[in-house]
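pls read this stuff:
=====
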Amino acid sequence: MSKKSFMQGAVILGGAGIVIKVMGAFFRIPLGNLIGAEGMGYYQTAYPIYVLFLTLAVSGTPIAISKLVSERIAVGNHYEAHRVFRVSFIFLLAISIISSSICFFGAGILVDAMGNSGAKYTMMAIAPALLFLPIAAAYRGYFQGMQDMGPTATSQIVEQFFRVVVGLFLAYFLIRFGKTYAAAGASFGATAGAAACIATMMAIYLKKKKRIAPLIEASPRENQESTKTILWNLLSIAVPVTIGAAIMPIMNTIDVTIVMRRLQATGWSLEQANAMYGQLTGMAAPLINLPQVLTMAVAMSLVPAVSSAFKQRDMEFLHYNAQLGMRTSIIVGLPCTFGLMILAEPIMILLYPLQRQSAIEAAPCLFIMAMGVVLLSTFQTMTGVLQGIGKQSIPVRNLFIGAMVKVAVSYVLIGIPSVNVLGAAIGTVLAYLTATILNYFSIRKHIGIRFEFRLTFLKPISAAVGMGLVTYVLFKVLSPILGNNLAVLVTVAVAGVVYGVLLFATKSITEEEVKRLPKGKSIIRVIHRFRNLKNN
């Protein structure tokens, strides 16, 4: 098997993630205008339960499957890799039937327990999606194990497209019958998207099976693992990953109680505390989550690449991928951190023009939480490395310790009137910092890697600092002339170009690495033409 870096897959998944985020925005905004607060209340009652069931079913399984598949392909055993896929498929099919049945037949019980009985049809409409997506996770994990991220990216885009189109169409068509039915129509968009997703994955699988089948037939059949062993190996990886995925959402739920109670205990009214919490979680936090689309793509792509190298004891290639993954996460995270910090208030005003005062008040939260972007980026990447070498429980432990730090720090700082809700933002950053440091030393311990300080850290930081200076000066110059909103857009565009130039100028990215990206050779030709024009 030829050596394959994770970068091409990361770019494919990252690009798909950006497209999905854009389509998601085109869904939520029109939907809110169409069905109003009442309809969104029904929609939001069912959707979190659906996400919870989906998270439990699929957050860890694609990673587990990809790791097991890549390990077997690394030693040329495509037959056992395919058996992992088959066993996983049957296991996830059982989970999908159980979870979708609970949500469909128990819809009334679930929404009554949440105090919103009007959301019953919304829950029933979204429940069938749970029948399809866990099965799709088996296909995705199988292809990811072969370091082929194209099927995952394609299916995700198809899923989101049908979700948006069908959901908005049904909401528009059913609004005449009432907002209860319109919300149910919007929820059915998720079911339509899930059905399109599994159909896409099956079609891709049938197409690629012609190439895979001869490899399976040529593989040895002796010393087969039992189905029980494969299932145990699958769960031993998937369960810790799933627990890890659930830690921060659980802690954020606890955070609601801490923030609201501590703010009111220090003299703020219920209305003031609610507004502050809304500024933190509803206005600032979503911006921090956007860069995760790219860093999660890096982490997902790292797992099979690292697993393959680790299985073959090719420590040199493992170290290469770990170094490149860390540098990539820093290169992606740093400009987001600097940009969001420098333009915190202008960005908030741009995004929330009708809530200008609240946007200005939320800017300090964004400023602080922006520091956590690069920390979360590196944490996710190092988590991918640890999962790849079979140490999937370590990031869970480290994130749990970080979450405990968050609770303690938030509780103390929120109780200081002059700090108030900023204490929760500081607690979040320190949680990421703690987990990142612990992950770093865990990697050093288990694979003996020593990251090249100059290449991995110093060069990207110098490029980001240069971009940050340009961002600060350019916005100060342009804002009196163009106004806040246009100045932000122009500054961000120019800063992006400057950062790209500085990355090559500081040799944070090499031409050899660019060539490995999709259309990498074409990008290099453009860079060479630009240099020639500059020299002439």
Observations:
- The radius of gyration is 24 Å.
- The mean pLDDT is 85.
- DSSP finds 20 helices and no strands in the chain.
- Residues 1-225 form one domain.
